[in-house]
Amino acid sequence: MNPITVKEIVKATGGTLLMGKPSDVITGVKHDSRECGADDLFVAIIGENQDAHKYIGQVLENGCRAVLVSREGEWLKQAEALGAAVVLVEDTVYAMGELAKYYLDTLNVKKIAVTGSVGKTSVRDMIYYVVNEKYRCGRNLKNFNNFIGLPLSIFQFDDSLEVVVLEMGMSDFGEIDRLASIVKPHIGVITNIGVAHMESLGSREGIFQAKMEIAKHIAGDDELPGTLIYASDSEFLTKERTKGNYDQISVGEKGKDDYIISSVDDFGMDGIKFTLEHAQEVRQISLPLPGRHNAINSALAVAVGDLLGVSPEEETDGLAAADLTGNRLKRRENGSICVIDDTYNASPDSMKSALRVLEHSRCDGKKIAILGDMYELGEDSDRQHFGVGLFAGGLKIDTLIAIGTHARKICEGADGGNPQTAYYEKKEDFYQDKDRFIENGDIILVKGSRGMKMEQVVENILKQ
């Protein structure tokens, strides 16, 4: 982070300087008291279970000399004695976003924002690796994509960067609007409109409207026109429904798309190969990442790279080097069996994509899917779980094991199809029974929503 003064913090946040010198400088922003150092601004966040104001005394004792607060307390005497700067605001989370907006505006960078129901972290990572072949590029820390994580990621950037790519997550209306207002991207990317967060958004139409909040904040400049890039579908992400005061670029498998994907060869965990056509130029792309869905994801990254002047050779090298964040279709082995660890999260679309990867993967034994509950599907939950099972039933896999409360419907959907099925309400019940399903040479997909903690299943399998 480049240095900024307390005076700038007060101006950016609209806060009040209760004490301290306006000329004091900070070079970092932290919300975790355990990580806060002498040159950091500590942001005291009031969460559902914790009020970080109670740690202010501790961070001051550890050397921190600037705090952003939303209420006063006994620690003010300690701050005054130490000469610390105290900035009072109404809402520290909102103020941190305003400070991130101000700070990002001080950097001379091209800004790319990514959202979507599924695949946004993968697309963000692919864009990063493609663009980083030509420019010094920054991206979100880990999966930090909300009101707290996105600003914290921005504070990691400095003058050495030329391009930043920022993922934006959401679970309700107005969240993308707020995040996009902080970033004000030159390029907005929407990966798809799925059914994740149906519980709070009500319908796919609602999800589309929430994702499109990114569009109102797209702002180009003389060097780079404002552009919305999206993976086209026939219902929501179309030229007509996404039009606005910016350029549009569509990616898909139809002849009318700007980037046309065809001839996709799926080699399971060994990756994919496909043809990509754009502006009468045709290229063959081989991707070491598994999953047919990554043809669309990588084409979105190529479209961004083209706008920024990245060469086809650099784009190919970037995609080959891409290392995706988190447990997304990661190969893990213990010498005798192979696990496809896709436990980061789950939605109906990503479940189906992962099942396709399992079907096309090579192995000497059986192909086994262990699937957990998918959350936040609202009244559509039973139908979506049943639909995943129905899809799995038509694939060439040997065994489907469902774990959780809602996952019973996955088994019901798959019954009568190709795989043998089994259902367990709890992971512990499966552990007692696992040896009758798993043998040397098998390949096993494990996937479920984050709250299911399906990574525990992975560890249990690998330790056998």
UniProtKB/TrEMBL annotation:
GO molecular function: ATP binding; UDP-N-acetylmuramoyl-tripeptide-D-alanyl-D-alanine ligase activity
Domain Mur ligase N-terminal catalytic residue range list: 26-102
Compartmental location: Cytoplasm
Main location: cytoplasm
InterPro entries, A to Z: Mur-like_cat_sf (IPR036565), Mur_ligase_C (IPR004101), Mur_ligase_C_dom_sf (IPR036615), Mur_ligase_cen (IPR013221), Mur_ligase_N (IPR000713), MurCDEF_CellWall_CoF430Synth (IPR051046), MurE/MurF_N (IPR035911), UDP-N-AcMur_synth (IPR005863)
Keyword field contains Cytoplasm: yes
Residue intervals of the Mur ligase central domain: 114-304
Catalytic function, reaction form: D-alanyl-D-alanine + UDP-N-acetyl-alpha-D-muramoyl-L-alanyl-gamma-D-glutamyl-meso-2,6-diaminopimelate + ATP = UDP-N-acetyl-alpha-D-muramoyl-L-alanyl-gamma-D-glutamyl-meso-2,6-diaminopimeloyl-D-alanyl-D-alanine + ADP + phosphate + H(+)
Claim: Cell division is one of the keywords in the record: yes
Positions of ATP binding: G116, S117, V118, G119, K120, T121, S122
Pathway recorded for this protein: Cell wall biogenesis; peptidoglycan biosynthesis
Record-linked Pfam families: Mur_ligase, Mur_ligase_C, Mur_ligase_M
Record key words, sorted: ATP-binding, Cell cycle, Cell division, Cell shape, Cell wall biogenesis/degradation, Cytoplasm, Ligase, Nucleotide-binding, Peptidoglycan synthesis
Domain named Mur ligase C-terminal: residues: 328-450
Annotated family: Belongs to the MurCDEF family. MurF subfamily.
Role of this protein: Involved in cell wall formation. Catalyzes the final step in the synthesis of UDP-N-acetylmuramoyl-pentapeptide, the precursor of murein.
Name the record gives this protein: UDP-N-acetylmuramoyl-tripeptide--D-alanyl-D-alanine ligase
Organism (species): Lentihominibacter faecis
